[in-house]
User: Which sequence fits this backbone?
């Protein structure tokens, strides 16, 4: 009998890549969606898995719906990818961010505890929990948290609640502290996709400039398709644990911009980029870089797509979209 998995956030970036991976491994995949009048399945369409997922209705803000869902499905694995994940928006919608990112995981954990204690639970944690760090030049599982946004704060709550339910009730719960990961289906509001989309427009003569905020912020960027494999591996272990997942390389937004323009044959990118203060955060996170020794050693995971390959992949995808 095939395993079953419930994936929240199925319509986002990571959900389709994870669904694709699980389906290829023979899972029956249930995707949680809210009651929309017109759900957007474009990310699932991009990977060709829209019709292979079974969709179930529920809401991360409605505990009763999640209790009923877990009681009905008894899934082997639950991957909680649902979140208000846009950092800038979290400053403007701190309450909503907290409700979805903090209380949502708590509701799921309670549902598992009461109705399906054998279900394995994955919580999508984030490098934004580390925030302001000046030690060692990298972050690993032992690095203290110092979140610099409501988004980061909300994720710290969910992280510790996931640990608490593991230690208090013996549930199989794992945190994946994933550093920035991107793909051609990254939301257009995120800086990486904003860059590749803007570069594609400039290449095709559809735009003359690209407006950005802080070019000096550094991030550890990888490919979402690689990172969902790490999620899966965490729930296949004998014992649950928490893992940092990243490439171990740090690149600035400026480097991302340069690589994107380089991929279309433009070296003098500065004449197209305009710095706009409205895109800067109230509190910036200057540098994030993963030390992912544990996930490599214990799970045998490592990234396959390089930084340059990732940027080129995203630019080509946006060129193809506008080409159509």
Assistant:
């Amino acid at each position: 009998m095939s395993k079953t998995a419930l994936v929240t956030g199925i319509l986002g970036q990571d959900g389709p890549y994870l669904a694709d991976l699980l389906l290829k491994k023979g899972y029956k995949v249930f995707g949680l969606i809210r009651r929309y009048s017109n759900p957007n399945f474009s990310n699932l369409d991009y990977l060709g898995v829209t019709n292979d997922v079974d969709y179930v209705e529920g809401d991360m803000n409605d505990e009763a719906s999640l209790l009923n869902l877990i009681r009905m499905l008894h899934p082997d694995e639950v991957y909680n990818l649902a979140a208000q994940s846009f950092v800038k928006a979290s400053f403007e919608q701190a309450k909503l961010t907290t409700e979805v990112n903090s209380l949502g995981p708590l509701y799921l954990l309670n549902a598992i505890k009461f109705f399906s204690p054998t279900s394995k639970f994955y919580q999508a944690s984030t490098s934004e929990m580390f925030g302001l760090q000046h030690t060692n030049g990298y972050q690993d599982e032992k690095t203290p948290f110092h979140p610099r946004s409501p988004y980061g704060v909300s994720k710290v709550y969910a992280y510790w609640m996931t640990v608490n339910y593991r230690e208090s009730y013996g549930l199989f719960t794992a945190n994946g502290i994933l550093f920035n990961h991107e793909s051609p289906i990254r939301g257009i509001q995120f800086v990486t996709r904003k860059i590749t989309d803007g570069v594609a427009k400039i290449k095709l003569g559809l735009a003359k400039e690209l407006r950005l905020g802080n070019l000096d912020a550094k991030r550890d960027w990888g490919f979402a398709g690689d990172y969902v494999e790490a999620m899966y591996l965490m729930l296949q272990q004998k014992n649950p644990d928490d893992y940092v997942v990243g490439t171990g390389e740090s690149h600035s937004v400026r480097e991302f911009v340069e690589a994107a323009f380089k991929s279309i044959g433009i070296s003098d990118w500065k004449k197209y980029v305009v710095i706009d203060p409205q895109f800067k955060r109230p509190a910036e996170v200057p540098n994030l870089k993963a030390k992912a020794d544990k996930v490599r050693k214990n799970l045998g995971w490592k990234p396959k797509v390089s930084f340059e390959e990732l940027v080129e992949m995203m630019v080509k995808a946006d060129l193809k979209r506008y080409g159509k």
Remarks:
- The chain has eleven helices and 13 strands.
- The chain has two domains: 4-181+223-245, 188-219+250-287+304-323.
- The first strand starts at residue 4 and ends at 8.
